[in-house]
Every structure is written in C-alpha cells, then in structure tokens.
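Researcher: Let's try something more involved. This one mixes different molecule types, so please make sure each is placed in the same coordinate frame as the others.
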Amino acid sequence: CRERFRETFDLVNDHFRETYPRLVGGGSARLALTDDEDLLETGVDIFVQPPGKRLQNLQLLSGGEKAMTAIALLIALFRVKPSPFCVLDEVDAPLDEANGARFNDMLREMSRRSQFLVVTHNRKTMECADTLYGVTMARPGVSRLVSVQLPTG
Amino acid sequence: CRERFRETFDLVNDHFRETYPRLVGGGSARLALTDDEDLLETGVDIFVQPPGKRLQNLQLLSGGEKAMTAIALLIALFRVKPSPFCVLDEVDAPLDEANGARFNDMLREMSRRSQFLVVTHNRKTMECADTLYGVTMARPGVSRLVSVQLPTG
Amino acid sequence: MRITRLELHGFKSFPDRTVFHFGDGISCVVGPNGSGKSNVVDALKWCVGEQSARSLRGSEMTDVIFAGSTDRKPVGYAEVALTLKASSDTPFPGEYAQLHELQVGRRLHRTGASEYFVNQSRVRRRDVVELLLDSGIGNNLYSFIEQGQVDKMITASPAERRTLIDEAA
Amino acid sequence: MRITRLELHGFKSFPDRTVFHFGDGISCVVGPNGSGKSNVVDALKWCVGEQSARSLRGSEMTDVIFAGSTDRKPVGYAEVALTLKASSDTPFPGEYAQLHELQVGRRLHRTGASEYFVNQSRVRRRDVVELLLDSGIGNNLYSFIEQGQVDKMITASPAERRTLIDEAA
Ligand SMILES: Nc1ncnc2c1ncn2[C@@H]1O[C@H](COP(=O)(O)OP(=O)(O)OP(=O)(O)O)[C@@H](O)[C@H]1O
Ligand SMILES: Nc1ncnc2c1ncn2[C@@H]1O[C@H](COP(=O)(O)OP(=O)(O)OP(=O)(O)O)[C@@H](O)[C@H]1O
Ligand SMILES: [Mg+2]
Ligand SMILES: [Mg+2]
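Model: All components are placed in one shared frame. Result:
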C-alpha cells in the first residue's frame, strides 16, 4: 500500500515533469513529498518554474500560470490512470491565445483514447470539437439543445 | 450612524434595482436586510431574478450570472460614492459576448467621471480603452511596457 | 466503457426531455451565460450518485427539480438517465458483465422520494456507485473539473493534493 | 483626485524602472499569461500601504522584490511611486491642501528595511493611508476587484456584504 503510493507518485511525477514543459512551451516542474519518511501521511508539494523564470512560491504565479500548472498535473494523472470519460467546465477561461492553443493540442491527443465533455466560451476550443452542442434559452428559463454552426474563418 | 447606514443602504438598493436590469438586459434584483430591527448587526441579502427566470437561490445562478449580479452591485455602490479611481482585474472573464458588451457600455459611462484601470484578455473590452498598455516578457522573467496596436476589424 | 447518451427531464433548467448523444473524442457544449451548460455537467454528477446539494449549487436536493420560469410551471420530479456501452477492455462489472449496454437512472420527486435505476430495475445508490467506480464519471478528482475549480489543486494543501495521487493509484 | 503616473522599479517582475502614464477614462492593461499585468495592480495596492503579503500572493513581504530571472540577478530593493493630481472638487487633505500634485512612494529593502515617502520626505505608513483614505486607491472594497474575485460578494456571507454598504456610507 505504501509501495503502491510510492510507485504511483513516481509515475505521476515522471509524467508531470514531461507534460508541464510541453504544455507551457518550456520551463520545468516537479512534485515532491513533504515527508519522505512517512508515506502514509505525507502530503504533496508542487515546484514549478515557468520558461525563463526562477523557481518561486507557487502562489506568486499568475492566474494563467496556475491554471496551466494544474492542467499539466491533471494530464499527468490522466496518463497514469486514464478515465474513459473526462469533464472540463471552462478550464480554458484564464488562458491566453498561446497557452490555449497548446492546451487544445494536448486535449485532442488525450481525446483519442477517452471521451471528453468540454464546456467553453472559447472559439478556438470549439474548433477542436468532434461534436458541438449548443444550449440556448430561446424561451427564458427553459434550456434547449440546438445544433451549432461554427462560422468558418 | 444607524441613520446613515439605513440611508446608504436604501440609496444603494435603489441604484441596484436599476443597474441590474440595465446590465443584464431585463429581470430584477434587490438587496434586503437580514435583520430590519438591528441596524448595527444586520447583514445584507441579495435577491435576483434573471430575465424570464424565477427568483431562486443565488448559488444556483451560473458563473456568468453571478458575475453580472456582482458587477451590477458594484456599479450601484459606485454611483452612491464614486471613487476617483477603480481597478478591475479580468472581471469580464466569465462573461459571454452579449453580457460583455453591456458591461463595456456601463464601464464607458462610469469612466467619464472616474479613472479606470482594467486588466483584460478580451478584445471587445480592449476596444473601449482610452489608453492601451501592453505588458510583455520578451526577456523571460522581465516585464516591459510596450505600445499596443489593436488590429482593426 | 463509453457514454452513448445522457437524457435530462425536469432537471434544473431542462423541463423538457432533452437527449445528448455522445460520440468519441471531444464533445463541446457552448451557449450564452445562464443557458444551462453547467447544468448538464451537474446532471452527470447527480445521475451517478452525488449526495451533496451544495456541490450542485443548491441548498436542498429538491433544488435540482425544474422550478418553473415566468411562463412555465414547476414540475413534480427530476430525472436523468445515462446510457453506457461496454468496451472489450472495460466490460461492466459483476452481474452486468455479459451486457453490452446499460442505462443508469435517477429520479427525485418534490416530496423527497428518491429512486435509482439500472435498466429500469430499481437499485440502491451504492449499486450505481459500485458499477461506475472506475469509470471516472462524476467521482474522479482529476477527470471532473468544475467551473472555477481548475486551480484548486494549486491552492489546495499538500495533504489534499496527496488525495489525487491516491485516486490515480 | 487623479492618478497621473505609476512607476515601478524592482517590484516583482519589473526590475527596470517602468512608468505608466494614466489619462482620463479607461486604461487597459493587456498581455500574455504571466507577463506582469496583475503585478501592476499589486504595485498600486502595495504603494498605498498594503500590509498583507498573502494578499499580494507572497508568503513574506520581501517576495515583492525582483527575485531574478534565468539571465538576471535579483535586486536589493523594490520601489513604487504614485503621482497624483488634485482636482478642484477633491483637493488633497490636511497639510497638502495647497498642492496641485504630489507623489507617494514606498520602498522595501531585502534586509526588511521599509520606507514610505510623500514628495521625497519620509513619512509613516499611516500618513499615506490617511492621505488616500477617500481616493479608492487600493483600499476600497468595491472599487478594487482582483483577479478571480468578481463573484466574491455573491459567495460572501450577509455580514461580509454589509461591509460594502458601510464603505459606501
Ligand atoms: N431547479 C431549477 N429550475 C429552473 N432553473 C434552474 C434550476 N436550477 C438552476 N436553474 C437555472 O439554471 C441557470 C444556470 O445554468 P448554468 O449554470 O448551466 O449556466 P451556464 O450555461 O453554465 O452559464 P455560464 O456560461 O454563465 O457558466 C440559472 O439561471 C439558474 O437559475
Ligand atoms: N519578486 C518577483 N520577482 C520576479 N518575478 C516575480 C516576482 N513576483 C512575481 N513574479 C512573477 O510574475 C509573474 C506573474 O505576473 P502577473 O500575475 O502579473 O501575470 P499576469 O500578466 O496577470 O498573467 P495572467 O494573464 O495569467 O493573469 C509570475 O511568473 C511570477 O513568477
Ligand atoms: Mg457554467
Ligand atoms: Mg493576472
């Protein structure tokens, strides 16, 4: 059981150290145990260094940088134990264009083996969809499903 | 002092009942005291009914609806006691196009008498700016101010 | 295991029977603020056994029943049904192992009467939870990210983050 | 009262002296994730007396001093200066009533030594706070909305919301 935690932790960490730079276009990140000796009680720390910046307190990161770090970790966990189904509600909201584009690339890759339900307001994310559902309230207070045409270009 | 609170509360409430429908394009909203008898200790409740919907628990509102409600209240407070200077960091992030446009209209109106510093990723919001500051990190980890050209159209 | 359809009826802002057909890959849900997108996410969570009204943005569980609009009356119950297909590497567990497809359903009446179904037969909530334990549908910390929650693991304590590792173990 | 310029030097991601000139109306700050936009907002808060390192996303106040990058060394102190102009209906209070323009400054050394200035003269923090009490710069609950905080008054308790009314009184 301790064994298993240690194994999983190392696996997730290996993936995280690879997903982070791929997702943000550089930099580095890793997980660390708060207490190496006590595998039953230990917590997990995150150390992250955005491209070109120094290693700093996680809280000093910007809104978008925190989101990207979290997403990179989610992807790492996903690679260790993929769920057949994944739901993301507006996770792309804090991301700028460059980060949003890299996020969409990794999303597409993961969606080859799992189903994704993604709620978004972002046009670029919509363009990655295999299926697009429009929800509207033509009659106020009553939601309906409508088919959506993405204007081209 | 109780007097003053009561006066201010009523003033803010009057404005809130007007700013909310203007901002979201319909519906209604009001403030209420949790304890009418005890003006020193009373809290403040918010009741809001988006256009065409029924009055419901505030928490059931969507992300964008909550943001619009909060913004309408801020505008009401602002009208009672305008600050010369107002800072908004990505408040438009959860808003869709229609709500974003109405928000920008009211922002422009308030900015006639106060200075606004608005941080945004939203193109439509940028188009309302009187001055545009670009912040970049051409040298990683080092922020610089650059002049910004908004592509037209 | 794959989701093939999700059906809402009387759930939150969906008084009329509404069916979402899920294909492979990425399904995007789009629409204006307050149109019902996150309500679809809530429907998924709820259908597979969510017990906390607060995590569905309500104060009581009956808050998920369509409460009416300015021109429609409230309804008497909420119902969500989820249709799943087994795949060769992820068959259904236990007594359902031989099935290729099954449907999980939940209904809540305004009286408070609550029911769970698998293929039209009444079951207990725990039967549904056990059936879906490894599916990542609604119960998985890292495959179900709600609105505003994306940086939760950054602001979380080291102890809370550890739970994510445990889930992936 | 109007802000005419904000100057950062050694503050967070701004090691080089950087000047923002504020005009009337709306000034928009734009740029990629992590470029320094919210750091500008932090600089404003800090300059006018913010005492909580946490509310500036740091664990200690010295976290606001430029800590270096991969190709630049850290610096020894952070400094922010805010230049204000009085207007006919909002003159400066107290001893500054006759002035048309004044500058508020704050400096923090890595040693922890901390200084506040008004027009190059050293003052106490409380002098700066009193001077700016009614300006809404950094200290006003309803005119200073930070990233991710817009719906805070919705999720806040009725008691917390009451504070907003008190502020507007
Ligand atoms: N039981 C109910 N009956 C009727 N309407 C409901 C019920 N529960 C929630 N709603 C309504 O559903 C709406 C919220 O929908 P939802 O959260 O899905 O919006 P959304 O599309 O995700 O919007 P956003 O883009 O702002 O996040 C609210 O207006 C709320 O009042
Ligand atoms: N003392 C410091 N020295 C050097 N860099 C710092 C310091 N404090 C913060 N930073 C860096 O500043 C960056 C955060 O900047 P900021 O929060 O202003 O970004 P932003 O432009 O608002 O981005 P977003 O659009 O994602 O919100 C982080 O990368 C952080 O590491
Ligand atoms: Mg939503
Ligand atoms: Mg920011």
